[in-house]
Structures are given as C-alpha cells and as structure tokens.
Design goal:
Structural class: mainly alpha
Order of helices and strands: HHHHHHHHHHHHHHH
C-alpha cells in the first residue's frame, strides 16, 4: 500500500485501494458473525442471493442488449457474467430443487451468451465436481436421479449452445479452437511481461511487493498497455510479494482442508464447497478475483456463512438433506 501512495498522492486513490483490500475480508467476517449468532439467517441469505441472481441476470440482459444494438449477437464477451457465475455455490445449497435448477439454468444461459472461455470452463468443471462429490456423499455407484439431473443440464446447455452458435456463425466454437493459436488471448505474452518486471525487483519488493494494483502502473511505465497479470498468483506476487503469496496459499489450503472435512463427514455442504473452490482455482489461473472485490465478495460471503453454519452447535445440520 505504501507503493501506491508513493506513485499516486491522491487521497481518493488511497481510499479506493484501501477499500478494495479490506472489502472481501470484511464481507467474510460479516456473514460469519451474523450467521454464527443467528443461524436461521443462513436460509434468509440463500433467498437473498437467489433474488440477487435474478436481478443480476436482468441487468446482464440489458447490458447484453446494449452491447449488441443492431444485431443480437454482434458483440458478446461480457465480463459481467462473473456476477452470475460466482453465485453458483449459493444456488447449489438451496433446499428447493426447482429454485436450485432455475438458478443453475440462469447461470448456464449467461455463461454461454457471454462467450467467455474462463467462465465456461469454471462453470462446467465446478458442476462436474459438485455432482462427483455428491455421488461420493450418497455412496452411489449409479444413481438414476443423478443421471436425470446431468441429462437435464446437458440438454439445457446444448439447446442454448446450439442456438447461440447458430446466431453467431460458430463464434464460440472458433474461440475455443483459437485458444492455442492466440495463446489464450495473449496471456502467455502478458505472463512473460510480468516475469520481466519481477526480475527487476529489489529484495524488499520480493518480500513485500509494490503495492495494491500497481502492476498496471509499472506496465505503463515499461511501455506496455496492460491492466493486470490475468493471473492471481502473479498479480499477488508482484503487488504483495512473498508475504502476500504465502497468505493467498494459506487461503487455498484452508479451503481445500475444510472441503475435505465436509466431504469426509458426508455433509450436504461438501459438494457445493468443492464447487466454490473449483471456481476460485480456475479463475485464479487465467483471470482475476483479488483485484475485483465486487466479484470475490460473493465467494467470501458464501464461505463466511457456510463456515459459521456448519460449525459449533450447527453441526447437526450437516447430515440434513437440502
């Protein structure tokens, strides 16, 4: 944070950076404390986030229409899709199956329409991980119920995918195939630039980094018009140094450990927790969460509420059906 102050003396910039840094931890603590004190608010939070999904999709639709004035599929690639994708873990813990499936289908539609490869991969793999661990939790080799759920999801995705592909003349398929040709939208070149900047680090910068969101500033100073590293690990290493990477690694290890604890207990929250970590892991490799507190806050709220509800005197709820 000191580096940010040295580069930009404006109070507004400092306060904005401070808010971005503390927002997600405060969201986690807020949901943890509230649900810990009043466990019934956990169900209220599910309703709130389902309604938030509906509102987000409405706004997403209007942004999509605005971006595609004149032709419905002329300009996809909407980053705002992550406001819907990151609500997936909340949808997976909704008790009512109808609402749960509605939430999943809405997110699936938004992901397909966005044409974002990272969003598509994160959504698909997180759902597969969810169903896999749900299978393990139920100790079923073949579940007709599971097959029907998967079939329904596949059919819904296929219908949406086929329609969009038809309207965009194979745009999404071309983007998936071109991943190797364009080096992931130039990400390999971006990573090489970050490594070049890291090679210029002093000892103190390796330990503590340059400051929050300063990679974009050093990129401009080095002659590159790049806003970020498009990789949370590289971004954190540059901005926060080895200290930041250790804290971030601890976050991942803590989430993995707690996920397997829930799965070992055959908790109904184990599969959704695994899905939430899958989203985090995939997005941290090719996109960002740490720089966008408004995105990351959805996952932080989920983890805070879930950890509070599934600990202490609420442990009995772990064996209850959704």
């Amino acid at each position: 944070m000191l580096s940010v102050v040295l580069i930009d003396y404006s109070v507004e910039y400092f306060l904005q950076s401070l808010l971005e840094v503390v927002f997600c931890p405060l969201i986690f603590l807020y949901f943890f404390v509230v649900v810990k004190k009043k466990s019934y608010l956990f169900d209220d939070a599910k309703i709130m986030f389902f309604l938030l999904l509906i509102c987000n999709f409405i706004f997403y639709y209007y942004v999509y229409i605005y971006r595609n004035i004149g032709s419905l599929f002329s300009s996809p690639l909407l980053n705002v899709v992550y406001y819907l994708l990151l609500l997936l873990p909340w949808m997976l813990i909704i008790k009512n199956k109808v609402y749960r499936y509605i939430g999943i289908v809405i997110i699936a539609a938004a992901v397909v329409l966005s044409m974002k490869r990272t969003a598509f991969i994160a959504f698909t793999l997180s759902l597969l991980i969810y169903y896999l661990f749900e299978q393990i939790r139920l100790r079923l080799i073949i579940s007709m119920r599971l097959l029907v759920q998967i079939l329904f999801l596949v059919l819904a995705l296929y219908v949406i995918y086929s329609y969009v592909e038809q309207q965009t003349w194979g745009f999404f398929e071309k983007r998936m195939i071109s991943s190797f040709d364009d080096k992931g939208s130039g990400r390999l070149d971006i990573y090489m630039q970050v490594f070049r900047l890291l090679n210029k680090n002093t000892f103190g910068e390796w330990i503590y980094g340059h400051g929050h969101n300063t990679l974009r500033i050093y990129n401009v100073m080095d002659g590159y018009d790049l806003l970020s590293a498009h990789n949370d690990w590289l971004e954190i290493l540059f901005d926060y140094g080895i200290v930041g990477i250790i804290i971030y690694l601890f976050l991942h290890l803590t989430l993995i450990r707690y996920t397997f604890i829930l799965i070992k207990r055959r908790s109904v929250f184990g599969p959704p927790m695994a899905a939430s970590y899958t989203i985090l892991f995939i997005m941290s490799l090719t996109s960002h969460l740490v720089l966008y507190a408004s995105y990351f806050g959805y996952l932080m709220a989920f983890w805070g509420a879930l950890l509070a509800f599934s600990s202490g005197f609420e442990k009995k709820a772990l064996s209850q059906p959704l």
